[in-house]
């Protein structure tokens, strides 16, 4: 039986995109308390079903898929550019397909302006009006305002007109940075990306007996299942090892492992993989905030997905990857060595190599070295770093890794940073590995 909380979430999910809701309206329509309505709306906001917009209220929005995570809503653009909405507030929940910089003649500019775009332009009233008529929102730079005619048209068409005090270049750079950050986030696999897409995962209830377990094994070929109670909350796990020595009539509740480790759909895949390897878990139930079963992921699913991602081109690069971009791989005495230049972006206020960047460089060196030795994904578990001498800007350094111990589940490395044949930093790293 569904709870009031779940009924409210389902009610919100069935609303039309753009429809406004409030705690009072939800409480009145569904006959619940204000507190219950408030908690459900906050949960819906966390799930991406609604968005609270200043001076507009809480609005039902289109839930973004992982493939569309880099697309911004106009409300998010307002926050990014510290803007003020001067018209068309009702359209702030809409997403923009791309932005266009209006730094050309009107005739040439309009060839690029389409429905769903955001036109970034100065105080050109005629351009504002024509852009809205073509279905594009407007971002006015330089702190200028729009005319009353443009504001009225924006309200009628439900297309936002935003004013920002920043110049055109700065605004475009800020929006581009936000999209770039989302591209990096998009490339990070989370549990829901690999979770079984079956309508209902295979599970056992606390009232089932061991015979039901054996029946599922014959039907599915699997040997481990989550156990749920009457409310579909995960309360245990049962494996073939657990049922050994028990007869068919024994209850599953008697043989199951209670309070199993679970994962949230938004848990990163790397974190889930580390947990599964560290705890020796083959199957991980995926649950919501109420611990209700949503699906399962197996260790094999995780490994395959991580291996697949390693083969894909990275769209957005992390700081660790950007720091390592200027380094090249060399071979010395049959061992890989990484040589590169300390650029201004890698230094602190004193012009010496930043400790954070140094850690990133050494970590990336260790991971690249291990990937050459074995397949699978790796996660740094422990790092002890010693700084022996400061490294000046524009210095050419070498990173020299040496594997000390390579086990089945973990590895230990020694990494030295060398400048002019002198060791300037040294680290001992322990990394956990995920085998195929």
Automatic annotation (TrEMBL):
GO terms for MF: DNA binding; DNA-binding transcription factor activity
Domain of life: Bacteria
The UniProt record lists the keyword Secreted: no
Listed InterPro entries: CBS_dom, CBS_dom_sf, Diverse_CBS-Domain, DRTGG, HotDog_dom_sf, Ser_kin/Pase_Hpr-like_N_sf, Thioestr_dom, Tscrpt_reg_HTH_GntR
SUPFAM superfamilies for the chain: CBS-domain pair, HprK N-terminal domain-like, Thioesterase/thiol ester dehydrase-isomerase, Winged helix' DNA-binding domain
Pfam families in alphabetical order: 4HBT, CBS, DRTGG, GntR
Keywords, ordered alphabetically: CBS domain, DNA-binding, Transcription, Transcription regulation
Membrane-spanning parts: none
SMART domains in alphabetical order: CBS
Residues of the CBS domain: 195-253, 256-312
The protein's name in its UniProt record: CBS domain-containing protein
Organism field: Thermoactinomyces daqus
Highest classification ranks of the organism: Bacteria, Bacillati, Bacillota, Bacilli, Bacillales
């Amino acid at each position: 039986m569904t709870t009031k909380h779940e009924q409210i979430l389902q009610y919100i999910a069935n609303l039309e995109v753009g429809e406004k809701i409030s705690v009072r309206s939800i409480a009145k329509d569904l006959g619940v308390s204000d507190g219950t309505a408030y908690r459900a709306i906050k949960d819906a906001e966390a799930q991406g079903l609604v968005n609270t917009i200043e001076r507009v209220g809480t609005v039902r929005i289109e839930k973004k898929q992982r493939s569309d995570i880099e697309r911004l809503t106009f409300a998010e653009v307002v926050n990014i550019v510290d803007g003020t909405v001067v018209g068309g507030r009702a359209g702030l929940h809409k997403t923009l397909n791309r932005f266009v910089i209006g730094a050309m003649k009107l005739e040439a500019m309009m060839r690029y302006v389409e429905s769903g775009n955001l036109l970034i332009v100065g105080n050109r009233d005629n351009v504002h009006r024509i852009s809205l008529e073509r279905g594009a929102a407007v971002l006015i730079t330089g702190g200028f305002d729009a005319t009353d005619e443009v504001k009225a048209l924006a309200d009628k068409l439900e297309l936002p007109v935003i004013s920002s005090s920043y110049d055109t270049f700065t605004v475009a750079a800020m929006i581009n940075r936000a999209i770039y950050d989302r591209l990096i986030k998009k490339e990070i696999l989370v549990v829901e990306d690999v979770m079984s897409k079956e309508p209902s995962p295979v599970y056992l209830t606390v009232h089932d007996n061991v015979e039901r377990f054996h029946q599922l094994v014959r039907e599915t070929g699997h040997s481990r299942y989550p156990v749920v109670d009457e409310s579909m909350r995960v309360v245990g796990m049962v494996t073939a090892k657990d049922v050994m020595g028990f007869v068919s009539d024994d209850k599953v509740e008697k043989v199951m492992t209670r309070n199993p480790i679970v994962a949230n759909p938004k848990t990163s895949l790397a974190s889930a993989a580390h947990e599964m390897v560290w705890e020796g878990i083959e199957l991980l139930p995926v649950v919501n905030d109420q611990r209700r079963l949503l699906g399962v992921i197996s260790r094999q699913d995780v490994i395959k997905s991580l291996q697949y991602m390693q083969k894909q081109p990275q769209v957005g690069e992390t700081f660790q990857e950007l720091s390592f971009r200027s380094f090249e791989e060399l071979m010395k005495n049959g061992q890989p060595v990484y040589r590169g230049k300390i650029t201004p972006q890698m230094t602190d206020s004193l012009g010496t190599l930043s400790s954070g960047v140094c850690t990133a460089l050494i970590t990336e060196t260790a991971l690249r070295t291990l990937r050459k030795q074995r397949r699978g994904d790796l996660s740094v578990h422990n790092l002890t770093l010693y700084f022996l001498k400061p490294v000046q800007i524009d210095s050419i350094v070498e990173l020299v890794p040496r594997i000390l111990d390579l086990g089945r589940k973990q590895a230990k490395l020694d990494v030295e940073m060398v400048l002019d044949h002198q060791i300037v930093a040294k680290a001992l790293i322990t990394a956990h590995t995920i085998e195929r």
